[in-house]
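Aspartyl/glutamyl-tRNA(Asn/Gln) amidotransferase subunit C: structure tokens wanted.
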Amino acid sequence: MSIDTDTARRVAKLARIRVAESDLPALAGELSHMLTFMEQLNEVDVEGVEPMTSVTPMRLKRRADVVDDGGYPDRILKNAPDAREGFFAVPKVVE
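Answer:
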């Protein structure tokens, strides 16, 4: 499939990308190349192939989901411009 400059201009507009008029032919060529590659991928027979998320089958290491304060709240609050009673203090924004 071949993309012309008018289609490339429309795609750029839909994607909210400003493309100079002189760059449209190059963009059209790149988009055509991408579509050609996708057409090649569609020709691959994947019947019976299970989808996978990794090249090697492995389980991700998981940690226990435990709520804690990190163990050093004083060190964290030391960097705050204003801290009161163990919390970050921020200016009031709603009246």
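Residues 24-42 form the longest helix (19 residues). The longest strand covers residues 83-84.

Cheers.
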